[in-house]
Amino acid sequence: MIQAKDLQPQELSALLHFYADSGVEWLLEDAPIDRVAEFAAQKVAREQSRASQPAPQQRADRQQPARAAAAAQPLNPPPVAMPNVDAVAAAQRAAEGASSLAELKAAIERFDSCNLKNGARSTVFASGDPAARIMVIGPMPNADDDRDGLPFSGRTGQLLDRMLAAIGLSREAVLLTNIIPWRPPGNRMPSPAETAICKPFIERQIALAEPDHVLLLGNFPARFFFGETGTIHNLRGEWREVTVGGRSVRAFATLHPQDLLGAPATKALAWRDLLMFSQAITRG
């Protein structure tokens, strides 16, 4: 087995990034533990426990009073989760009650009716310039976003910064956000119920920011706003009018920075899309 001390710095860095992307948060115990000795002690304890147990009939006789006492105790059922339809209605009320992006952020941070929040470290809200009239929307936070509490952190954020800089923009000159404000466990795709619960929040963000142009990054945002099931390769590269909260918005889909990291050959497609996006926002 290769040990960490035998790795080169760049290899160790790549390994740590892999662990972070996989959702690993702790690598070490507070004190060293001899797992081999621990297992041996557990095995001895199990054997001693079996040797000291009474015969089956004796155990049954002793267990009957305990079972009777347990049956007499009132049951404490676990709390019932809020049905999805109620959670969606609660999200709609929370979103509609916000008259500014700051109020919406506070409302999302208070919202407890989406199970994704229970497993996430941070509520990742929009960042950048709310008055930019340009929104860049991704799918959901990844491990870096969840750790930093900001959208598009880590390697994907660095690549997005370079993508924006290539057409004369920066993250400070646009409004960056995600459809889902909480990282799903293991970076899995959100379920339809989770998406429906989060939908009022992203719609309210768009209504409050009033963008003239929206750049959608990846499969999930393109399908979410276009209402289609194709891949980003089928949905990218053309402007579409989408209706959000009764307001028509011009939206353009391209590949997510993570797609480019996984398949560098697709950078040419993304560059072509960015040029089209840049031409449109230049014309106004």
From TrEMBL:
Classification via InterPro entries: UDG_Type-4/5, Ura-DNA_glyco_family4, Uracil-DNA_glycosylase-like, Uracil-DNA_glycosylase-like_sf
PANTHER family noted in UniProt: TYPE-4 URACIL-DNA GLYCOSYLASE, TYPE-5 URACIL-DNA GLYCOSYLASE
GO biological process assignments: DNA repair
Organism, scientific name: Pseudorhizobium banfieldiae
Region of interest (Disordered), ranges: 46-78
SMART domains listed in its UniProt record: UDG, UreE_C
Keyword Electron transport: no
SUPFAM superfamilies attached to this UniProt entry: Uracil-DNA glycosylase-like (SSF52141)
Low complexity biased stretches: 65-74
EC number(s) given by UniProt: 3.2.2.27
Protein family according to the UniProt entry: Belongs to the uracil-DNA glycosylase (UDG) superfamily. Type 4 (UDGa) family.
Uracil-DNA glycosylase-like domain residues: 125-275
Catalytic activity: Hydrolyzes single-stranded DNA or mismatched double-stranded DNA and polynucleotides, releasing free uracil
Coiled-coil portions: none
Protein name per Swiss-Prot or TrEMBL: Type-4 uracil-DNA glycosylase
GO molecular function: 4 iron, 4 sulfur cluster binding; metal ion binding; uracil DNA N-glycosylase activity
UniProt entry keywords in alphabetical sequence: 4Fe-4S, DNA damage, DNA repair, Hydrolase, Iron, Iron-sulfur, Metal-binding
